[in-house]
Each structure stands twice: as structure tokens, then as C-alpha cells.
Design goal:
- The relative contact order is 0.07.
- By secondary structure, this protein is α/β, with parallel strands linked by helices.
- It has three domains: 188 residues, Rossmann fold (3-Layer(aba) Sandwich); 122 residues, AICAR transformylase, duplication domain (Cytidine Deaminase, domain 2); 121 residues, 3-Layer(aba) Sandwich (Cytidine Deaminase, domain 2), CATH 3.40.140.20.
């Protein structure tokens, strides 16, 4: 059927005039409200007020204008139901064939730090979602457009068909509407949840968890493996520094595995206030270090495991300068992510065809949002592991006592073991990892693997363990390697046996009271 009548009522007026002019050229009667009608009239487009249809004025400062049977009967009337059409004829109400609506900018307003609660609430659209849902329910007879991004394809189809829109297009447009309105409701729900007073289990973990992810315009060739398809989504309403919001300055599109590793690399270096570098491979760090300069931090991180660093992912928490770029250039790397790059650094690194360079801008504070992990048929939700320990939180449990220098090394070991897949053991100096044992099924195996991976003597180093030692064997292995001090959560039923082993070897041991499992 040819479109004869359309309602246009939009908050975002991008592309509106062009669409309206095409509709006018095709002889479509235009109906509008408030600001949209004013914009159309100012551009010389003939338009009726919705009040002419409803025979009722806009009231309550525009809160009520389209919420009227005259509007909704025109949207919901079924063209193949004679009773619906007869009812409209008796009441003198028009059919509406096209609805063009986008909603009040709730998300934009609610994200503003200076927006009052009252202002945010007034940007909850009521009439818009109601019209969109009504038109979409009746998609066989009514075309519904909810985004300026859809205008070009609609204009093209209207011109090609002299004013008609196919059922296939209408069906797709209706699906887009329900995606749009459900996401809009999710944003409102999230905002109101954030305003609840007091942290309770119910407010932190609501009965129904609503999240909104938007597809990132970045094609993924496949998932973890070539036989798996994959895509990439951004959590909306999250302004935190993140991979979806980073800029790809150079290199081919990111892969599924690149994105997963970059996320860990970015989160890791953001934990450090000192200049820091991390090199990741297959979801695990193969080196983490801090330094007086960025190049020093990177060299120290690479020195931990130079073999595994080949083809790795690098995270840096300072602007990449020319000297650091030259070091990065000396090893084959998949990706580098940093807050910024100097012009000289980019000149060096962009000569490498296969490296990907991502720029995040200044790091924002970490957001305590829920961390979600999908499982078959559901999802796990937990608060993020952003807890840290300070010197005063540590409990020395051995006869040997740590010096101020030892505290530095122990805290560095604790900061770094957090990023290694459990069971995790790290061996470090005060500023760099020197051996990493990741992901073994027993803690003593991780301890031994860390020693095997070390490229230097472990004499005088610090051992970090992400969870308690279930037996003394891990301590015995550490002592034999020359470790000076151990940091671990404590809490094992055999803590006394483990402490005794440390005392026998003259080791320092401190408990954190906090665990850092990472699965």
C-alpha cells in the first residue's frame, strides 16, 4: 500500500528535513508535534499539528500530546479487519501509515554530571515508546522508523516504489524498534538502580539484570578459533576507559583474542600509579614491571620471558615516546595499547605493517560495575576485583620480619599475581616479575613452573601466591630457589604447617587476608 499519512515526532532532528521533503514530494500528509512541527514549518514543509487529529491540546508542558485514542487507533487499525476500518470511519479518525519517532535523549542527559534528578526524569519519554510499540505491533500495515540512520534506505525504497514500503522492510524496522525501546528501558532501569540509597545485595544484584550492549562497527573474522563465528559489543552508558572506546591508530582490525588480551593488559597497567608495562600472551602476563621511564619498564617486563614476549600484547600506562617505540619495534608484537603516542613514536611504529596501535586517552577511574561472565543458559555476575591491600593491611606471621624494602617487593608481587590465571605464582624483584607460573591444577606445580620460566636467578626475590598454600611443599620449593619473602592470603587449615616451613627456611611471610583467583 502506498503511504498516505505519516506522523513525525523526533528528538534527534538529524536528516529530518530531507526525509520530510521526500515524503511531501510523494504526496504524503505530514502530522507532527511541538519542536518537530516548528522545525518542519521553518523549512517550508506543510505539516498538520497532532492536535488537529486528536482535537485536544498538548498539555502539562508537553507531557501529554500523542497519548490519545485518535493517534493509537490510527496506528493499530488492521487494514484487513473491516470492523477496525468501520470504527475509524464512524469516529472520523485517519489511518496512519508511517511513524517516524526517536526518543528523548535520556542517556545523554543522565550521563551529564550536572544533570539534576528531576531533569533526568523529565527525559523519560512516554508517548514516543508507546507510539513506536503500537506501530511495530501493527507492522504489516504501518512502517515505523526509529533512527536517523534508517532514513537513507527508507528514502531509497520510497522513491523506487513511488511511496510504498515492503513487508520485508516493515518487519525488519519493527524488530529494530523493540530492540530500541527495550534498550531505552534498560538505561532507565540502570539509572534508577544507581540512585538507590545504600548498597544491598538486592540493589547490587537485582532480580532482573538489564544490560545494554551495542554492536561495535568492527568486523571479527572469527572467534577464539576459525570455526567459531564472533562479534564485538560495547556496554553503553559506561564512560570508563576501555577497549571498545579506544582508537585504533594503525594496523588491521582486531581479532577476538586480541580484544580479550588487550582488555587484561589495559586493566593491569591501570592498577599502577608508577610508570608500568605489561606483556601478555594467551590471557596471561609473561612480564610486568615498573620503572623510572617507560622504556625501562618495558625492557624489564620483556626480560621476564623474552621468548613468550614474541607476538605478545603490550599495555603501557604512559605516553609512548620515541625511545620506547624503538624498543617495541625490536620485537614482533601483535598489539600495543597506551594512553597516547608521540609523533616520533608513531613515525617509528607505523612502519610495521602488522602491529596494531590503540590509543585510550587519559585513564579514567575504574568503575565498580558488575563483571559478567556468560555460561551456557545464563550468566555469572560479580563485583569487579578492584580491591587492593596496603602495607598496614599486611600481617607478618613468621619470625623473620620484612624491611621497608621488603614491603615494596611484597606489594609489587601481590599487585602482579592478581593478573595471572589461577593457580598463580609470581617471583619478582621490587619492580619486575622474573618468573610466572600460571594456570596449573596444583599450587606447587605453579611454583615450579614459575622457577622453570625464570630467565635469571631467583635469589633474594619475592613470591606472590593468589591463594593460600594447602601444603608446605610450595614454600619448600620457593626456599630452594632462593626466595626471600612470600606474600599470600592465608586461611588454610594448614597455615601453621606452612608458617613453620617458612620459619625453618628463614623466610619472611605475610598474609593479606584477600584472595585473587582469576579464572
Amino acid at each position: 500500500m502506498k503511504i498516505q499519512r505519516a506522523i513525525l515526532s523526533v528528538s534527534d532532528k538529524t536528516g529530518l528535513i530531507n526525509l520530510a521533503k521526500v515524503l511531501e514530494e510523494l504526496g504524503v500528509e505530514l502530522i507532527s508535534t511541538g519542536g518537530t512541527m516548528k522545525t518542519l514549518q521553518e523549512n517550508g514543509i506543510s505539516v498538520k499539528s497532532v492536535s488537529e487529529i486528536t482535537r485536544f491540546p498538548e498539555i502539562m508542558d508537553g507531557r501529554v500530546k500523542t497519548l490519545h485514542p485518535a493517534v493509537f487507533s490510527g496506528l493499530l487499525a488492521r487494514r484487513d479487519h473491516p470492523g477496525d476500518l468501520k470504527m475509524l470511519e464512524q469516529l472520523g479518525l485517519p489511518l496512519i501509515d508511517l511513524l517516524v519517532v526517536n526518543l528523548y535523549p535520556f542517556e545523554k542527559v543522565s550521563a551529564r554530571p550536572d544533570a539534576s534528578f528531576e531533569e533526568v526524569i523529565e527525559n523519560i519519554d512516554i508517548g514516543g515508546p508507546s507510539m513506536l510499540r503500537a506501530a511495530s505491533k501493527n507492522f504489516k500495515d504501518v512502517a515505523v522508523v526509529c533512527s536517523p540512520a534508517q532514513y537513507d534506505e527508507i528514502i531509497k525504497e520510497l522513491r523506487e516504489t513511488n511511496g510504498e514500503i515492503s513487508l520485508k522492510t516493515k518487519t525488519r524496522l519493527a524488530r529494530a524498534v523493540f530492540e530500541y525501546t527495550s534498550a531505552y528501558d534498560a538505561a532507565i532501569t540502570a539509572y534508577l538502580q544507581s540512585k538507590e540509597k545504600g548498597a544491598t545485595h538486592e540493589s547490587e544484584f537485582p532480580e532482573i539484570l538489564t544490560t545494554r550492549f551495542k554492536k561495535v562497527p568492527c568486523d571479527l573474522r572469527y572467534g577464539e578459533n576459525p570455526h567459531q563465528s564472533a562479534s564485538y559489543y560495547m556496554l553503553e552508558n559506561c564512560s570508563e576507559t576501555s577497549i571498545p572506546r579506544a582508537r585504533l591508530l594503525h594496523g588491521k582490525p582486531l581479532s577476538y583474542n586480541n580484544i580479550a588480551d588487550l582488555d587484561t593488559a589495559l586493566d593491569c597497567v591501570r592498577d599502577f600509579s608508577d610508570t608500568a608495562a605489561v606483556i601478555l600472551k594467551h590471557a596471561n602476563p609473561c612480564g610486568i614491571a615498573v620503572g623510572e621511564t617507560l622504556v625501562e619498564a618495558y625492557r624489564q617486563a620483556r626480560e621476564c620471558d623474552p621468548v613468550s614476549a614474541f607476538g605478545g600484547i603490550v599495555g603501557l600506562n604512559r605516553t609512548v615516546d620515541a625511545e620506547t617505540a624503538a624498543e617495541l619495534d625490536s620485537t614482533f608484537l601483535e598489539c600495543v595499547i597506551a594512553p597516547a603516542y608521540s609523533a616520533e613514536a608513531l613515525d617509528i611504529l607505523t612502519k610495521k605493517k602488522n602491529i596494531r596501535l590503540l590509543e585510550t586517552g587519559d585513564f579514567t577511574q575504574k568503575n565498580p560495575q558488575l563483571f559478567l561472565k556468560s555460561i551456557v543458559g545464563g550468566a555469572l555476575a560479580q563485583s569487579r576485583d578492584i580491591g587492593m591491600v596496603k602495607k598496614e593491611d599486611l600481617k607478618t606471621v613468621t619470625k623473620a620480619q620484612p624491611t621497608p624494602e621488603d614491603y615494596e617487593g611484597l606489594l609489587f608481587a601481590w599487585k602482579t599475581v592478581k593478573w595471572v590465571k589461577s593457580n598463580a605464582i609470581v617471583y619478582t624483584t621490587k619492580k619486575a616479575t622474573v618468573g610466572i607460573g600460571a594456570g596449573q591444577m596444583s599450587r606447587v606445580d605453579s611454583a615450579e613452573l614459575g622457577i622453570k620460566k625464570a630467565h635469571r636467578s631467583l635469589a633474594g626475590t619475592y613470591m606472590g601466591s593468589d591463594a593460600f598454600f594447602p601444603f608446605r611443599d610450595g614454600v619448600d620449593v620457593a626456599a630452594k630457589a632462593g626466595v626471600r619473602a612470600i606474600i599470600q592470603p592465608g586461611g588454610s587449615v594448614r597455615d601453621a604447617e606452612v608458617i613453620q616451613a617458612a620459619d625453618e627456611h628463614g623466610l619472611i611471610m605475610v598474609f593479606t587476608g584477600m584472595r585473587h583467583f582469576r579464572h
